[in-house]
Design goal:
single chain, 341 residues, alpha+beta, 4-stranded antiparallel β-sheet, 3-stranded mixed β-sheet, 36% helix, elongated
Length: 341
């Protein structure tokens, strides 16, 4: 839908630029340039096209333009400039790329038509553009997370932060009341204690590791599921609603919650790597993808409270026996008929 709309916009601009009367098409000259050849994913590139032609000639621009792998985001006409018997017509295209690597803006043809429909065909130059990733040096180790950008404080900014703080307090109170309701009530009633968050997270990571996602080349789905497991763990462990936050908001929530600095920094690197796959179309290989899952597992294991041993450290029989098994008599007579209450 966006591609069709952009092509119509380009066609409209080209028709406006082409509104010149008939004249000679001889000696037409075309120049074009780009404002940069090194961009990051999603950055804007301005491609300027200028045609110098006789005063009465008309410039016939293409109805639409597919400049793949670049997308045409906007187009604007340049006001004609008169230089004696000649006129300079032009247009500016705003492009963007969402792929990494050395890309090329392709060439396309433009016609200058004079009287008697005599025409001259001109072609634009091709331009090599290097598109690099956002904030990650893929040639070395993953960089540390950067601090938040400084923004001017305003009434709106303060109001937003107050609303966010109130929402966090309400969520924490709701989670506290929910946990209180899980405590044993009347005598004789039995309640199942909630599972520790780290056990739930580690089991989920094990399921993803055993799944066929990487064999099926579903690298993006793999990173999305791993990221959601860690975000759900942050919600249950530190009471930060990470599933509904951006990566920066998760970092700020963990700082306010008093989470350990090593965990916060490691989680920032982990989420940045997953975001590159989800939003910047990065495609790591199988080993790199498995390394991301291993980083998530180590973050969970290293943040387990001292009173909660890791699941793999518990003896197998402890998971299948009630917690008060040590208080049961070593030998008890078998129940008689009707003796079970």
């Amino acid at each position: 839908m966006r591609r069709v709309g952009t092509e119509r916009l380009v066609a409209a601009v080209f028709l406006v630029v082409a509104a010149s009367g008939p004249a000679s098409a001889q000696d037409a000259r075309l120049t074009n340039s780009v404002d940069t050849t090194l961009v990051t994913v999603g950055d804007r590139i301005r491609l300027t096209i200028t045609v110098d032609h006789a005063a009465g000639a008309r410039v016939v621009w293409p109805d639409s333009r597919d400049l793949s792998p670049f997308e045409v985001l906007a187009a604007e006409s340049l006001p004609p400039a008169t230089d004696g018997p000649r006129i300079r017509s032009g247009a500016v295209l705003t492009l963007a790329a969402f792929e990494l690597g050395d890309l090329e803006i392709p060439s396309f043809e433009i016609q200058v038509v004079g009287p008697g429909e005599a025409s001259e065909t001109l072609a634009t130059d091709r331009f090599g553009i290097e598109v690099v990733s956002v904030g990650v040096d893929e040639g070395g180790d993953i960089r540390g997370i950067r601090g938040p950008m400084r923004m001017p404080v305003s009434v709106i900014t303060v109001s937003v932060w107050l609303i966010l703080a109130v929402a966090i307090v309400v969520l924490a109170a709701w989670l506290y009341r929910r946990r209180k309701r899980r405590a044993p009530g009347e005598a004789g009633s039995e309640t199942v204690p909630p599972r520790p968050p780290h056990e739930v997270a580690l089991e989920a990571l094990d399921r993803i590791e055993a799944s066929p996602l990487l064999q099926q080349q579903r690298v993006k789905d793999y990173h999305i599921e791993v990221s959601e497991v860690l975000r759900a763990y942050v919600e249950a462990r530190f009471f930060v609603p990470a599933l509904e936050m951006t990566t920066r908001e998760v970092m700020e929530g963990l700082h306010r919650a008093g989470a350990p600095g090593d965990f916060t920094d490691g989680l920032g690197r982990f989420l940045d790597t997953c975001d590159m796959v989800k939003f910047a179309k990065a495609r790591p290989d199988g080993d790199a993808s498995r390394a991301v899952l291993a980083l998530g597992r180590s973050l969970v294991e290293d943040s387990i409270p001292a009173s909660e041993p890791a699941a793999q450290d518990r003896p197998p029989e402890a998971e299948n026996q009630p917690s008060d098994a040590a208080n049961q008599p070593t030998a008890s007579p078998p129940p008689t008929a009707g003796g079970v209450s």
